[in-house]
Amino acid sequence: MSLKLNVIDREGKQSTIDIKEGTTIRDAIDDELFPDNYGVCGGCCACGTCHVYVKPSDYDKLKAKEDEEIDTLESLALEPNQYSRLGCQVEFKKEHDNMTVTIAPD
Questions:
Q1: Per-residue pLDDT of the chain (106 residues; tens, 9 = 90+)
Q2: What span, in angstroms and rounded, lies between the C-alpha atoms of 38 and 55?
Q3: What is the C-alpha to C-alpha distance for residues 49 and 62, in angstroms, rounded to an integer?
Q4: Nearby residues of 101 by Cβ (< 8 Å), 6 or more positions away
Q5: What is the CATH number of the domain that holds 66?
Q6: Nearest of 103, 99, 9, 6 to residue 48 by alpha carbon
């Protein structure tokens, strides 16, 4: 089943990409949109470059952040806020269909 992820890039352009259930947001964005300096560590929760802002109305659909993600966001991500997530730590599920994320500044 093909799910949709709405992505607003760093220039404010919105795209809708297909994403398979179980794929991380980081991998889907990297495979479809190829943003510069995005997901540099390859999905290891080590660099903060796959930082996205989740649309507030979609945020509560996600499982809670684990300590490693919180530490990386606090120490390495630029301009984190209460809706920040690392794309490599969010596996897409069918209940996330049509969710919107904005790629954070690099």
A1: 689 999 999 999 999 999 999 999 999 999 999 999 999 999 999 999 999 999 999 999 999 999 999 999 999 999 999 999 999 999 999 999 999 999 999 8
A2: 19
A3: 19
A4: 5, 6, 7, 8, 25, 52, 53, 54, 55, 58, 85, 87
A5: 3.10.20.30
A6: 103
* Amino acid present at 14: Q
Place of tokens 């649309």: 55
Into how many domains does the chain fold?
1
84 within 8 A of 59, measured Cβ to Cβ: no
Burial (CB < 10 A; 0-12, 13-18, 19+), residue 101, is: buried
Name the residue range of residue 12's domain: 2-103
CA-based radius of gyration for the chain: 12
Q: Counting Cβ atoms within 10 Å, is residue 49 exposed (0-12), middle (13-18) or buried (19+)?
A: buried
Measure the CA–CA gap between 80 and 54, rounded to whole angstroms: 11
